[in-house]
Amino acid sequence: MKPSDVLSLLGISQKARKLVSGQDSVERAIISKRVFLIIVSEDSSDNTKKRFSNMANSRNIPVVVWGNARDLGKSIGKEERKVLGLTDRSLAYEVYRRLKSLTGVGDIEQTESI
Asked: Among 73, 85, 81, which Cα is nearest to 28's?
């Protein structure tokens, strides 16, 4: 499994309109209970990581800290993106599964089932 496999799946998710990007958009989607997986870039601030981790933990949404903002944004055809949220359960599960095999369980904030 390569990082490009995950990035291409994120691009497919964006094309299918099953992904929200950007801190404000993801936060609104979390509040409206439409997000099944949150990806926070490694180069985002500690405050951002903590904020989304707290939000996700209270709603049992898995959070993965992975990648950098430039690559995440480029994979979905946009500029830098620090936070992505997947809004389709099956796509979220597949991305989660691929990230888990890439990074191991150590980088996944919460390992609740999707």
From this structure: 85
pLDDT tens digits, residue range 22-52?
999 999 999 999 999 999 999 999 999 999 9
Contact yes or no for 57/104 (Cβ under 8 A)? no
Helices 89-103, 3-15: inter-axial angle, 10-degree rounding = 170
Assessment of whether the complete model's pTM goes beyond 0.85: yes
Is the pLDDT at 4 greater than 90, yes or no?
Answer: no
Q: Distance (Å, rounded) from C-alpha 43 to C-alpha 92?
A: 22
Mean pLDDT across the chain, nearest whole number?
89
Strand ordering across the sheet containing 19-21: 19-21, 83-86, 37-40, 63-65
Question: In this structure, are residues 72 and 12 in contact, taking their beta carbons and an 8 Å threshold?
Answer: no
Beta strands in the chain (DSSP E): 19-21, 37-40, 63-65, 83-86
